[in-house]
Each structure stands twice: as C-alpha cells, then as structure tokens.
Amino acid sequence: MATAEDIVITVGGNTTGNGSTTFVPQRVAAAPGDVVVFNFTNGNHTATQSTFSNPCIPAHETNVTINGFNSDFRNTQPGTSGSILTVPINEQNANDTFWFFDYNTCGEGGVGVINDNESSNETLAGFSRNAIRLNGTNSSNTTSTSYLTRPTTPPPPSTSPHKSAANRVFTVGAVGAIPLFIASLFV
Q1: Is residue 56 a part of any domain in this protein?
Q2: CA dihedral 82, 12, 186, 93 (to 10 degrees)
Q3: pLDDT tens digits along 111-135
Q4: Which sign does the torsion angle of CA 166, 95, 37, 118 carry?
Q5: Domain with 114 in it
Q6: Predicted pLDDT at 15
Q7: CATH at residue 173
Q8: In whole angstroms, what separates CA 40 from the centre of its chain?
Q9: Is residue 1 part of a domain?
Q10: Of 38, 97, 99, 100, which alpha carbon lies 20 to 30 A from 63's?
Q11: What's the structural domain count of the chain?
C-alpha cells in the first residue's frame, strides 16, 4: 500500500522576471490521498485554479460547475514564516487535471499543472503559451489582459452573495465536497 504524501510547490521563486519560475515545480503528479501544498515564500502571488482554454481566469468564472481552489493574494517576504494553501487529492478527483496560475505573472508564463495527461494535446507547454499569447504584455486582447493588471493588494471585502475564498468548497466530483483549509491571507 502506498502512503500519502505532501507534494510541495514553492510559490514566489520568481526573482528573474521569468514567470515560469513562479511555481517550482510547475508540474506535479499526485495520487489519491496526497496533498498538494502551495508554499508561498516570496512576493505577492496567488495559486488560482483555471481551465486550459482560459489560463489566466479563475475556473469558476469560465465554468460555473468548477468550484476551484484560489489562495487569493499572499504577500510574503523572504525569512518570514510564509503562507500555505493545501489541495487534497482524493479518489473522486485523482484523474482530474488541475491547471493553475498566478495573477501577477500569468501573462509571463506563471502557470502550472497537477496531474496532466501526458498523452493529451493539452500540455503544460501549450498552457503556458496560451497564457502568454492571450494575456501577455504583447496581447491585443484587452479583455484578457485585464487579469494581468489586478491589484497587488487584496480587494476590499465584497458584498457579493458569493462565498469568499476562505469559505469556498473544493468540489470532488458528483460525490460531494470537502472544505479547503486556507491559511491566513497575511502572516
């Protein structure tokens, strides 16, 4: 019997201006029972689930059936305790692919994936190209580029009927849902 493990993705290693270094590693494989841990270590970043076709837009904004994970902005400094977001992988979602991005670096390739299908046409390289093509600084699509210019501080509390990121539920298929335990926005 395999034992479950924590798979850590470091967020914030982007000190070179290269968005592809925001998530290290950018690609992970996780088995049922594993927990993917986004460890925010440097800068003001997010880990936000999206879809392959809309790489820099939260998944629930393009597909209402996906109640994806979203860390919101986590502003951390080197040498501080940091902040984490955990994403559990269970039997119901073990075969799902989870595309994700950082609001601040998505248009520069600040994207990643959990459990991609290597034989699919939807690859990490393609997802990164789409993020840059649709949302990069050379993009002529002003609708998509608006996601690049999100504020670097968290927005004020919303009066919207939608749940906050801290109260969102991570959907695990038709079977049910489990709450995401999200660490404090600020350390």
Answers
A1: yes
A2: -90
A3: 999 999 988 999 999 999 999 999 8
A4: negative
A5: 6-179
A6: 62
A7: 2.60.40.420
A8: 12
A9: no
A10: 38
A11: 1
Is residue 186 in a domain?
no
CA distance 185 to 85: 10
- Strands 35-40, 83-88: pairing is antiparallel
Residue (of 178, 8, 9) closest to 101 by Cα position: 9
How does residue 150 score in pLDDT terms, banded at 50, 70 and 90?
A: very low
Write out pLDDT tens, residues 42-88. 889 999 999 999 999 999 999 999 999 999 999 988 777 779 999 99
- The strand pairing partners of 114, in sequence order, are 28, 98
Q: Is residue 187 part of a domain?
A: no
User: What are the tokens at 50?
Assistant: 């999206």
Beta-strand runs (E) in the chain: 6-11, 23-24, 27-28, 35-40, 43-45, 48-50, 74-76, 83-88, 98-101, 111-114, 169-171, 177-179
| DSSP H helix total and E strand total for the chain | 3, 12
Kind of pairing between the strands at 111-114 and 98-101? antiparallel
